[in-house]
Write a structure and sequence with these properties.
Layout lengths: L10 H9 L8 H30 L5 H25 L5 H12 L9 H14 L2 H22 L5 H17 L16 H40 L4 H9 L2 H6 L6 H17 L5 H15 L5 H15 L5 H27 L15 H16 L7 H13 L10 H5 L1 H7 L3 H20 L7 H13 L9 H18 L11
Helix pairs in contact: 1-7, 2-3, 2-4, 2-6, 2-8, 3-4, 3-8, 4-8, 6-8, 6-9, 6-21, 7-8, 8-9, 8-11, 8-20, 9-20, 11-12, 11-13, 11-20, 12-13, 12-14, 13-14, 18-20, 19-20
C-alpha cells in the first residue's frame, strides 16, 4: 500500500474536492433519494450473495433469520472484495459498480419469490398481537427517523474526521492509503470498504445509508436471536434496540460501531444458540467474528470469546475440526487487514503496539497519547471503585460515558435482572456482563457498547418469563411507550446537542 506522504492532496482536501462532485452540496431531497437508493441496492447485493450461503449451510434457521444473517455475511464478502480491489489499486466507481452488479446477479433466481415473501410478512403482521404490532411500528418509526437523519449533512466528529476522508482517499487513489497524520487510516477498514459502492454513488449520504442498513439488520438480528431464546420476544427486542438513543444517534451516521456490533452479535449469538454446531456453522461464525476484527481492533476480543464458545458447544467428535474451520474463516476475512497495517506502519495493531515493534520515540509517544485519549475520553479513569459504581451510573448518569441508552432500556434493567432466573436467557445476560466489563477497562464510550446493548435487550425481553403472566402485557406496554417517546424526541429541535 502506498503512503499518503507522497500524495498530492491531503485527506482534508480530498474530503472537499471529491464530496463536491457527489451530492454533498445537493438538496435534502437529492441526498435522500440517492442515499436511500444506493443503500438499498447495496444491501440487496449483500443479501443476494450471503443469502445463498445461509440457505445452503444453515437451513435450520427460520427463513427471516437466514435472510438477516445472510445479508450480514454478504456485507463481509463484498467488503473483502473491495479490499482486494484496493490491494491491486483498482478501486474506482466503475469497478465498484461492476462488483455490485455481479452480486445482484445472484438475486435473479429468487426474484420471483419476492412477492410471496412480502405477502407472508404482511400476513404475519396482521396476525400479530396488538403489542407486537406496536413494537414493529415503533421499530419502523425508528428506521424512518434514521433515514431522515442519514440524508442530512454529516455533523459527527468521527465520520467527518476519519471515516469519510478514508473512503474519499480510497476512491481518489484506487487503494486504501496510509496517512501518517491520520492514525485511523492504518486500522482495519472492512466497514469503509463495504460502504464504498454507496459512497461512490451518493457521497456521505450513501455511506450513511449503508451503515443505517447495518443498524436495521442489527435490530432484526437481535430479534431473530431473541426468538431463539423466548418465542414471541423478537418484536419487543427489535423495538428496544432500534428506539434506543444510542442507535438513533450512530446508526444513521457513518460510524463503524454499528456494523461492528452486527457482526459481533452474529458471531456470539449464533455460537450460543445454534443447536448443532458443526464445521459449516463454525465456519460461518468465524466469518462473522473475522468481519468484526476486520472493522475494529476490539473485534480481536470477539474472536477470542467466540472461539471459546465454539470449543464449548461443538460436538466432541467434531470439536477440533469446528475450531479449525472457525479460525480458518476468521483469518481469511481479517488477516489481510492486519498484514496491511503492519506493512504500512510497522505495527499490526497500530498504534497500540508501537513500542513492542521498536518504533521511534516520537511514534511511541504518539501511541501513548492516543491510547490514553481513547481510553479516558469519556467516563474518567478506571478504578475498582468506579467499576463498582458502574451499574448505578449507567442507569442514572449514562451521559457520563458520552451517550445514552434511552429510558426504555433503563426501565428494562428490571427485566435484565430477572433474566438471570430464566435458564435460556441467563447466557445472554452473562455475556452482557462480560462485554460491559471488557468495555469498562478498555474504552468507556457508549458507542463501543452497542453489541452489549443488543445482548442486553435480548436478555431483558426474555426476562419476562420470570414474571407473572398477568404482569407481562403492562410491562411490555410501558416499555413500548418509552421506546416510542425516545423516537419522537428525535423530531423535536435540540439546540443544545453536542455531536461527538
Amino acid at each position: 500500500m502506498r503512503s499518503a506522504r507522497n500524495l498530492s492532496r491531503a485527506s482534508e482536501d480530498i474530503l472537499v474536492s471529491v464530496f463536491g462532485a457527489v451530492l454533498d452540496t445537493g438538496s435534502f431531497a437529492a441526498r435522500l433519494a440517492a442515499g436511500l437508493g444506493s443503500g438499498a441496492v447495496l444491501w440487496i447485493a449483500f443479501w443476494a450473495v450471503g443469502g445463498r450461503i445461509f440457505d445452503r449451510w444453515l437451513s435450520c434457521l427460520p427463513a427471516r433469520g437466514r435472510q438477516v444473517f445472510g445479508a450480514a455475511a454478504g456485507f463481509a464478502l463484498i467488503g473483502t472484495c473491495a479490499g482486494l480491489l484496493g490491494l491491486v489499486h483498482l478501486l474506482s466507481f466503475v469497478s465498484l459498480m461492476l462488483l455490485v452488479a455481479a452480486a445482484l446477479a445472484f438475486a435473479i433466481p429468487s426474484a420471483g419469490s419476492w412477492p410471496a415473501s412480502l405477502r407472508g410478512m404482511a400476513d404475519g403482521f396482521r396476525a400479530a398481537s396488538v403489542l407486537d404490532k406496536t413494537a414493529w411500528l415503533v421499530a419502523a418509526a425508528a428506521w424512518i427517523t434514521g433515514a431522515i437523519a442519514a440524508a442530512l449533512p454529516a455533523v459527527d466528529w468521527d465520520p467527518l474526521a476519519y471515516h469519510l476522508p478514508i473512503a474519499a482517499a480510497a476512491l481518489a487513489h484506487g487503494a486504501f492509503v496510509f496517512d501518517p497524520d491520520l492514525a485511523q487510516s492504518a486500522f482495519p477498514l472492512l466497514s469503509e470498504a463495504a460502504a464504498l459502492p454507496a459512497f461512490a454513488f451518493a457521497g456521505s449520504a450513501g455511506a450513511a445509508f449503508a451503515v443505517l442498513g447495518a443498524g436495521i439488520a442489527l435490530s432484526l438480528a437481535a430479534a431473530a436471536l431473541a426468538e431463539r431464546i423466548r418465542t414471541g420476544s423478537g418484536p419487543l427486542t427489535c423495538a428496544l434496540v432500534a428506539s434506543s438513543s444510542l442507535w438513533l444517534w450512530i446508526a444513521p451516521a457513518f460510524y463503524v460501531d454499528v456494523p461492528f456490533a452486527l457482526f459481533a452479535l452474529a458471531a456470539l449469538g449464533l455460537a450460543l444458540t445454534l443447536e448443532d454446531l458443526d464445521v459449516r456453522s463454525a465456519a460461518l461464525i468465524g466469518l462473522f467474528a473475522g468481519a468484526a476484527a476486520a472493522m475494529k481492533y476490539p473485534g480481536l476480543e470477539i474472536v477470542a470469546i467466540a472461539v471459546v464458545v465454539v470449543a464449548w458447544r461443538a460436538a466432541r467428535a467434531a470439536r477440533w475440526r469446528a475450531i479449525a474451520a472457525y479460525m480458518g474463516t476468521t483469518v481469511a476475512v481479517a488477516g489481510g487487514w492486519y498484514v496491511r497495517s503492519f506493512a504500512v506502519s510497522g505495527d499490526p495493531v497500530y498504534p497500540f503496539a508501537t513500542g513492542v515493534f521498536g518504533k521511534s520515540a516520537d511514534a511511541q509517544a504518539f501511541a501513548a497519547r492516543y491510547v490514553s485519549m481513547t481510553s479516558d475520553w469519556c467516563g474518567g479513569h478506571a478504578t475498582i471503585a468506579d467499576f463498582a459504581l458502574l451499574p448505578w451510573r449507567l442507569l442514572t448518569e449514562p451521559q457520563l460515558y458520552c451517550g445514552d441508552q434511552g429510558y426504555a432500556l433503563r426501565l428494562a434493567a428490571v427485566l435484565f435482572a430477572a433474566a438471570f432466573f430464566v435458564p435460556r436467557a441467563r447466557v445472554f445476560a452473562s455475556l452482557t456482563l462480560v462485554l460491559v466489563t471488557v468495555w469498562f477497562w478498555t474504552s468507556r464510550q457508549w458507542r463501543f457498547l452497542t453489541t452489549a446493548l443488543a445482548t442486553y435487550a435480548i436478555a431483558a425481553a426474555a426476562g419476562l418469563d420470570a414474571l407473572a403472566e398477568r404482569h407481562r402485557p403492562l410491562i411490555v406496554a410501558a416499555l413500548l411507550v418509552l421506546a416510542a417517546a425516545s423516537v419522537a424526541l428525535n423530531w423535536l429541535p435540540q439546540p443544545g446537542r453536542d455531536a461527538s
